[in-house]
Amino acid sequence: xxxxxxxxxxxxxxxxxxxxxxxxxxxxxxxxxxxxxxxxxxxxxxxxxxxxxxxxxxxxxxxxxxxxxxxxxxxxxxxxxxxxxxxxxxxxxxxxxxxxxxxxxxxxxxxxxxxxxxxxxxxxxxxxxxxxxxxxxxxxxxxxxxxxxxxxxxxxxxxxxxxxxxxxxxxxxxxxxxxxxxxxxxxxxxxxxxxxxxxxxxxxxxxxxxxxxxxxxxxxxxxxxxxxxxxxxxxxxxxxxxx
Length: 243
Hints:
The protein has 243 residues and is α+β, with helices and mostly antiparallel strands.
């Protein structure tokens, strides 16, 4: 160390020299040696740079280097990120993952193997042939299932998600689209005609009932009232001839 030690230092240094830079740091700062060419200069930082980990002591806080295969670390024996070509597992950097694990090239970690998972089969579809459900005797019906978990690189691959089997139906003719439309139109017109006929019959019935009612009322008005029949007992009463 150069004998010229100064107390009035910059950049967080407690003591420093012109030749070696910081010699000690202010409280809570970390001391680390940075190489500049063939010379190492001491600096004081609030946190350790990448590739170093911090250790605190009563007299000084220092930054120490991680292992050679470790890019960042928490302690010397616990890595948090590995250098290229290594995979992180439980704080260690490995060239090959242990059994039961696989290398994830995206995160550069050893992760658990994930197998494919599928849903339950759907019900069988109607028996069809060339997209139709009529005009044939033998056809096919299908069922499907969905993938709910895709596998990882070393996981079990997904099985088929579609199944088909032969089916037999009672053959029936397909109704032509034009004929079916025409039949529906004719049926609709017939229904409308029947409804109109029923409406006309109801109207005629109401008119006839109204006419009969008016005729009875007119007959009652024009017919003469019947005279009251005489009391025969009064007519046959004896006449007093005493006078």
